[in-house]
């Protein structure tokens, strides 16, 4: 028989607020129009670049409703200053894999590449249109491959990338069918997304892979509100050196959850995620709900995830509703024990979780397993009311956490935990007529 850990008292927790940034107020902006594409192979990237240059420094590039603007060449847009893009039409990237795998902007983090990169100051993209990555040909080509395979040479572009942006607002648009991550924000500050819809859907058996909604690297002050993601990987996933994040009213379907990380991947490198507030999330049909993930292994880095709050979280049909994972990526327990993670998890709070799991983990709805080589303390959970189709009581499993976590939690080797993991949903009762 096992004994649950002691139950701690409620503590103060991080309550973030939306960031404030003053974009230039201008009346009577100069409007710039460019020609639309005649078909899906009519590349207007030169016209687009020229239009951006004309609208820079106080103007608006207008992309009209019902029109298609096809981009077939890589574009460096890191020179921007006080520009708006009124996106009511469709920006569509060509599906020329041979060109894009030879012509791109590269970032060293996980061998990321991009169609284009945006940077500068005071950039506003708004409207009712969409940016479309033409992802199906990439989903087909990447079938059977793995992004973190060191031998992988099939690189897929990110749909939208920033490099050195200060003051970026994206509002109202849709982002569809990215070949890989949807948003990769790097070396940037004061970023705002509101009312943005992200979707990646395949028309055959080759599912989208790694089509994260939002990923960050060296980013400070990010706000995401009133947005939706229907994709095949992390809904929202800040990565190394991300600080001061506010997320509110986020709907996710078919994802890998709202994840902190992964971090600690590269040997000798310190990574940080700090001051994160995630509030009012709906998570449907997903592998994970709220997740923290850090690398372990023989040749990895170190760092911390600190001062993170998940509040008001609803799950439905989620395998791991609440999970702390310090044994990432694809390591077995033996290897993880031999080379445990050195990423600390501190001051992490989970408040008001409800809904139900998928029962893939039996009656277990909370799994918080920490490394013996890392600090794992001030972890607190309150009002955790996630149930399992396998029945009640729902079970929490904890290992390696210093102090109580606010709810009863059994070690993984306890009889109660092992039993809860094996429990499967009972078949529905039949009625004889």
Automatic annotation (TrEMBL):
It catalyses: [(1->4)-alpha-D-galacturonosyl](n) + H2O = alpha-D-galacturonate + [(1->4)-alpha-D-galacturonosyl](n-1). It is an enzyme of class 3 (hydrolase). One of its GO terms (cellular component) is extracellular region. It comes from the Eukaryota. One of its GO terms (biological process) is cell wall organization. Its EC number is 3.2.1.67. It is found in: Secreted. InterPro entries: Glyco_hydro_28 (IPR000743), Pectin_lyas_fold (IPR012334), Pectin_lyase_fold/virulence (IPR011050). SUPFAM superfamilies: Pectin lyase-like. One of its GO terms (molecular function) is galacturan 1,4-alpha-galacturonidase activity. Residues 1-20 are annotated as: Disordered. Belongs to the glycosyl hydrolase 28 family. Specific in hydrolyzing the terminal glycosidic bond of polygalacturonic acid and oligogalacturonates. This is galacturonan 1,4-alpha-galacturonidase.
């Amino acid at each position: 028989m096992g004994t649950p850990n002691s139950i701690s008292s409620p503590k103060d927790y991080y309550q973030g607020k939306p960031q404030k940034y003053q974009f230039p107020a201008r009346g009577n902006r100069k409007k710039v129009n460019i020609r639309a594409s005649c078909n899906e192979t009519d590349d207007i990237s030169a016209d687009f670049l020229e239009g951006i240059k004309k609208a820079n420094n106080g103007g608006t590039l207008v992309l009209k409703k019902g029109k298609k603007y096809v981009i077939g060449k890589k574009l460096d847009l890191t020179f921007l200053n006080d520009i708006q893009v009124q996106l009511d039409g469709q920006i569509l990237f060509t599906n020329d894999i041979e060109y894009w795998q030879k012509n791109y902007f590269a970032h060293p983090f996980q061998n990321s590449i991009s169609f284009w990169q945006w940077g500068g100051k005071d950039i506003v993209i708004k409207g009712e249109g969409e940016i479309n990555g033409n992802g199906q040909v990439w989903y087909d080509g990447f079938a059977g491959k793995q992004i973190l395979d060191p031998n992988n040479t099939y690189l897929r572009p990110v749909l939208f990338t920033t490099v050195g942006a200060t003051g970026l607002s994206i509002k109202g648009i849709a982002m569809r069918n990215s070949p890989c991550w949807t948003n990769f924000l790097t070396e940037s500050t004061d970023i705002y997304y509101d009312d943005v819809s992200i979707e990646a859907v395949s028309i055959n058996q080759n599912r989208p892979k790694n089509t994260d909604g939002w990923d960050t690297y060296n980013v400070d002050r990010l706000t995401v509100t009133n947005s939706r993601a229907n994709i095949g990987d992390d809904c929202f996933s800040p990565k190394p050196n991300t600080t001061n994040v506010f997320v509110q009213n986020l709907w996710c379907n078919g994802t890998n959850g709202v994840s902190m990380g992964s971090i600690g991947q590269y040997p000798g490198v310190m990574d940080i995620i700090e001051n994160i507030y995630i509030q009012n999330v709906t998570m449907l049909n997903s592998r994970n709900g709220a997740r923290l993930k850090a690398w372990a292994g023989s040749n990895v880095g170190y760092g911390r995830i600190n001062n993170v709050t998940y509040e008001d979280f609803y799950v439905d049909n989620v395998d791991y509703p609440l999970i702390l994972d310090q044994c990432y990526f694809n390591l077995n327990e033996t290897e993880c024990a031999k080379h445990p993670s050195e990423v600390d998890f501190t001051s992490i709070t989970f408040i008001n979780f409800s809904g139900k799991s998928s029962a893939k983990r039996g009656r277990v709805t909370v799994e918080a397993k920490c490394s013996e080589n890392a600090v794992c303390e001030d972890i607190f959970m309150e009002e955790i009311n996630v149930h399992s189709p396998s029945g009640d009581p729902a079970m929490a499993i904890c290992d390696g956490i210093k102090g109580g976590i606010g709810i009863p939690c059994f070690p993984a080797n306890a009889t109660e935990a092992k039993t809860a993991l094996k429990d499967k949903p009972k078949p529905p009762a039949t009625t004889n007529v």
